[in-house]
Design a protein that fits this description.
The complex is a heterodimer of chains A (about 350) and B (about 350). With about 350 residues, chain A is an alpha/beta fold. Chain A has 14 helices and seven strands. Chain A has a five-stranded parallel β-sheet, with helices on both faces. A two-stranded antiparallel sheet of chain A has the order 4-5. In chain A, helix 2 crosses helix 3, helix 2 packs across helix 4 and helix 2 packs antiparallel against helix 12. Helix content of chain B is about 35%, strand content about 20%. Chain B is globular and about 65 Å long. Classes of the chains: A alpha/beta (about 350), B alpha/beta (about 350).
């Protein structure tokens, strides 16, 4: 079952000209950094430097790039196993992300988590979760803590895929957030496939915002391939959550260009569909928009590419050089006392 | 000011423990089904809503996975929630949150995050509530690294364990056997502080070590009283902490008595009793004068009919019989136990 790609512009979203060169270049850079990181991770996985499961965000960059700049340091982020881009744009250094994927002690989770479990306390990045739907109740709880401790305007941003909507946990968490007025921004990255199962084959009703509405939560459908549309929608949604202290649900229509993970033969979708969505590549599309608006020159683009490559190279070098945790410490990280050893 | 001990119940002791925690630490709040307006399904939280308000005594929807997950999230976010799951039977719905979030976050994050949540649940059988309401799944939780598992079996522990559990930076699961809520007894005033580390000898003895926890403690003590009248002096150890197991206290006793019977209301296969006996064999095999034994629930879902339920449970007569069988001298009739 194929789906027509979404419109390339969202009515009402600010134009690149209105937002300015610096802002737009930053968004483009953010997306490109994710893209180059993910491409390198795929390569490193082939070289067996990254092991286990690896889930790439290629094609979906506009979502993280559009949402993250709207969050403040005191806000909290909960993500999924496809979270490298979210971690990076939240501010987790690429060095420590790469080291984590290499299983090194200098990794952002001490080498204990790997690709699916990136965590960072300093940036309030609460993981990295391999259980589909596992982060939703956590996000509700983090928001509850903010409400109870009078951090009145902190927002908890919870990213999840459309597959999570089938889990009971989704409904339980949305109901709680609505009932208890919890400041959660629920960001559903609808890339149409939960591993190999198309949304239309697993949900009797595929309008996901309607499910949020059934719990009394305000929602919006957004073109997730357009970074400015995402940014503007997220800005408004976050403002509302912050001001009213009630949850909001964004359904972002997006698409992953690569397989679910490195093991996936993609038997469940047709190459023509992937090719159609690639025509809406968020990076190429945005770069084109910026060139048309004369906000991006060829040498700007080269510079951004060069810097991204340099950052990735440095991250790989860092990860390569980093050491492994001594095996004697295996039983660490179970209790607070272990942490002090 | 020290007053003479007062008569109270396990239930009331738990309630007082909650009141103390809510008064002392503003981060503490209670959440669960019917903890507020209903007053708690076992009346533990009766009156707390009126005293502390609905921000801190939170009735939840019937969403175990959701509200346990949220409690865990709130703990991650700096609060000290007490999450009451009505019974262990319903906790299965929340297993993912407990095992895949609470137990794992410190480890998966390389020590950056921790989950100071206390999860309380009623467990056990004996009131003809039939198969879905009679589980003893303590071994399932005691199996998981990252959890501390407690089983207060006395009024003193019901009163005292909650505060240190709340101060623990990591998740603590507390099992309250449903038949203990009505237990009455004396509690010193002020209530003594207790640890959440060690087992306790509830009855000193010389001939055999009986190790147990939770709702099986009164049964084991009853069996010990019966055995005493027959000249068998049993030492009864209350584990109190199911994870991490205080095996040292058990070994100390076994080295003295040289015989051990573990009593566990969980089904035999995969029981905590099995784990205990394995550890005793590993560390004190040559100190044993008889093969270790255990008395557990029969391997059948808990039946409704009273006589069948009683036949399934490790009640005092069965415990005493297991000890008698163990005390029979090897290779000679009539020789008295040491």
């Amino acid at each position: 079952m194929t789906t027509a790609p979404p419109l390339s512009t969202t009515p009402g979203a600010p134009t690149p000209q209105a937002l300015g060169r610096e802002f737009c270049t930053a968004r483009l850079t953010d997306m490109l950094r994710i893209r180059r990181l993910e491409e390198r991770c795929a390569q490193l996985y082939g070289e067996q430097k990254i092991r286990g499961f690896l889930h790439l965000y290629i094609g979906e960059e506009a979502v993280a790039a559009g949402v993250m700049p709207n969050l403040r340091p005191q806000d909290k982020v909960v993500a999924t196993y496809r979270e490298h881009g979210h971690a990076l744009l939240r501010g987790v250094p690429m060095n420590t992300i790469m080291a984590e994927m290499f299983g090194k002690q200098a990794g952002c989770s001490g080498g204990r988590g790997g690709s699916m479990h990136l965590f960072d306390r300093a940036t309030r990045f609460y993981g990295g979760n391999a259980i589909v739907g596992g982060g939703l109740a956590i996000a509700a709880g983090l928001a509850l803590a903010d409400r109870l401790s009078a951090h009145a305007d902190a927002v908890t941003a919870c990213f999840f895929g459309e597959g999570a909507v089938a889990e009971g946990a989704f409904h339980e968490a949305l109901n709680l957030a609505s009932l208890w007025r919890l400041p959660v921004l629920f960001i559903c990255e609808n890339n149409l496939y939960a591993m190999g199962t198309a949304l239309s084959r697993s949900q009797a009703s595929i309008d996901l915002t309607a499910k949020a509405a059934s719990h009394g939560i305000a929602s919006a459908h957004i073109n997730g391939m357009n970074v400015l549309a995402v940014h503007d929608a997220a800005r408004q949604a976050i403002e509302q959550v912050r001001e009213q202290g009630t949850p909001f649900f964004l359904e972002l229509h997006t698409y992953r260009f690569r397989a679910h993970s490195m093991f996936d033969a993609e038997l469940y979708r047709d190459k023509a569909e992937v090719a159609r969505w690639k025509q809406h590549d968020p990076i190429e599309h945005f770069a084109g928009q910026l060139r048309d608006a004369e906000l991006l020159t060829h040498s700007d683009m080269q510079r951004i590419e060069r810097e991204a490559e340099r950052e990735v190279d440095a991250a790989v070098a860092f990860a390569d050089a980093a050491g492994l945790e001594p095996v004697e410490q295996l039983a660490r990280y179970l209790t607070a006392e272990d942490a002090q050893r | 000011m020290t007053q003479s001990p007062s008569t109270t119940s396990y239930r009331e002791a738990l309630r007082e423990a909650h009141r103390e925690a809510l008064q002392r630490d503003p981060r503490v709040f209670l959440m669960g089904e019917d903890v507020g307006r209903y007053g708690g399904t076992y009346a533990v939280s009766k009156g707390l809503l009126a005293e502390f308000g609905d921000a801190r005594i939170r009735d939840t929807p019937l969403s175990e996975l959701g509200f346990v997950g949220a409690g865990i999230g709130a703990a991650l976010g700096g609060m000290r929630p007490i999450v009451e799951i009505m019974t262990v039977n319903f906790s299965l719905l929340a297993m993912d949150a407990i095992v895949n979030t609470a137990a794992l976050y410190r480890h998966m994050s390389g020590g950056q995050f921790h989950v100071p949540v206390v999860i309380r649940m009623a467990s056990g059988a004996g009131r003809q509530l039939a198969a879905q309401h009679s589980h003893s799944l303590e071994p399932w939780y005691a199996h998981v690294p990252g959890l501390r598992v407690l089983a207060p079996a006395t009024i003193e522990d019901a009163r005292g364990m909650l505060w240190p559990a709340l101060q623990d930076p990591d998740p603590v699961v507390i099992f309250e056997h449903a038949q203990l809520y009505n237990l009455e007894g004396q509690l010193a005033e002020p209530a003594p502080q207790v640890d959440i580390e060690r087992a306790a000898v509830r009855r000193a003895g010389r001939d055999v070590t009986l190790v147990t926890y939770g709702g099986s403690l009164p049964r084991t003590l009853d069996a010990a009283a019966q055995l005493a009248s027959e000249g068998i002096d049993a030492e009864v150890i209350d584990l109190r902490v199911l994870r991490p197991l205080d095996i040292d206290s058990v070994l100390q006793s076994v080295r003295k008595t040289r015989r051990i019977v573990a009593v566990d209301e969980a089904w035999r296969s995969g029981s905590l009793a099995g784990e205990l006996l394995a550890r005793v064999c590993e560390s004190a095999f040559y100190e044993l004068d008889a093969p270790p034994a255990r008395v557990c629930s029969e391997e059948v879902p808990m039946p409704y009919a009273k006589h069948l339920e009683e036949a399934a449970l490790p009640l005092a007569p069965k415990i005493a019989a297991a000890v008698r069988a163990m005390m029979k001298p090897v290779g000679g009739a009539g020789a008295a136990p040491r």
